[in-house]
Specification:
By secondary structure, the chain is mainly α. It is built from 14 helices and 2 strands, in the order ααααββαααααααααα. The chain has a two-stranded antiparallel sheet with strand order 1-2. It is globular and about 50 Å long.
Length: 286
């Protein structure tokens, strides 16, 4: 199966698992807002969970719980990131953001509920290493991971000097990289196996993904991206593009993809779809 077909299949399976989870919740504005927030994404983080789990012989049902969890957690982060107090965005994945479609209170509560759902999914009865998955998810999502990255990003908007390359790299390792790391390592963690190669792969992949995002923000098509672009430049924020230039950023992203692919050498040809995923992140247009 090609990478594109694998990604599409994984996204559909994860969406079905999330729909089943939402169907068991009381009918409410918040539930509908949660479903809205979960729609339209690439599903790359869930895909990483499923691929990593398959490499390590993890049962598909258990893998789907973890894959759905990371997509719910990611969706929560986007809902809150789009709020007026944060990035104040009106469009996400080509659709109105949750606070625009409903209101700020509903968006806050939907984000809270998606975060709770993520932990519920990894703690399902019989889920292998459920406590470990929950602990590592809390670390990846919290003030030592994604939240720290978001906080540093907000602080950078009013900093007297633009961030340097080292600071941008550290910021993005939390804001973007932490969830990629959890997703890639979930499979080996569920199997009780060494997650070192997948952690190395994810660290390079996450940084390449963010550089690609910066390139898209600089020169992409907002209609294809499904969100507002060029906001960083308007705010005079330092990015990989502003610090390295367009060609320098492309070269750095390509080197990171090579690094990610090399990290998968212990898996041989069985990890080729993951290598294709790495190449995809720097060629995507949205």
């Amino acid at each position: 199966m090609s990478f594109a077909a694998s990604l599409e299949s994984a996204a559909a399976a994860v969406a079905a698992r999330l729909a089943a989870a939402l169907a068991g919740l009381p009918d409410s504005r918040v539930r509908h807002a949660m479903a809205h927030a979960l729609g339209g994404g690439k599903g790359l983080r869930g895909f990483l969970v499923l691929e990593g789990a398959a490499l390590h012989g993890v049962d598909r049902a258990h893998a789907l719980n973890a894959a759905a969890a990371i997509e719910a957690l990611h969706a929560y982060s986007l809902v809150h990131d789009d709020l007026p107090a944060m990035d104040d965005d009106d469009l996400r994945r080509g659709l109105p953001t949750v606070h625009v479609k409903w209101d700020e209170a509903t968006a806050i509560l939907a984000g809270d509920a998606l975060q709770s759902l993520a932990f519920e999914l990894v703690c399902q009865p019989g889920q292998p290493q459920g406590a470990v998955l929950a602990l590592e998810l809390a670390r990846a999502a919290g003030v030592a991971g994604m939240v720290l990255g978001q906080a540093l990003d907000i602080e950078a908007e009013t900093a007297p000097e633009p961030l340097c390359l080292e600071q941008i790299t550290a910021l993005q390792a939390g804001k973007t990289g932490a969830l990629f790391g959890w997703a890639a390592c979930a499979g080996p963690r569920m199997a009780g196996a060494d997650h070192g190669p997948m952690a190395h792969y994810a660290a390079a992949l996450g940084l390449a993904f963010q550089i690609a995002d910066d390139l898209l923000d600089h020169e992409g098509d907002a209609a294809l991206a499904g969100k507002a672009l060029r906001k960083d430049a308007a705010a005079s924020k330092a990015t990989f593009v502003s610090l390295l230039g367009v060609e320098g950023a492309r070269a750095r992203a390509a080197a990171l993809v090579d690094e990610a692919c090399a990290a998968l050498s212990p898996y041989g040809g069985r990890a080729e779809t993951l290598r294709e995923a790495a190449r995809f992140v720097i060629s995507r247009r949205k």
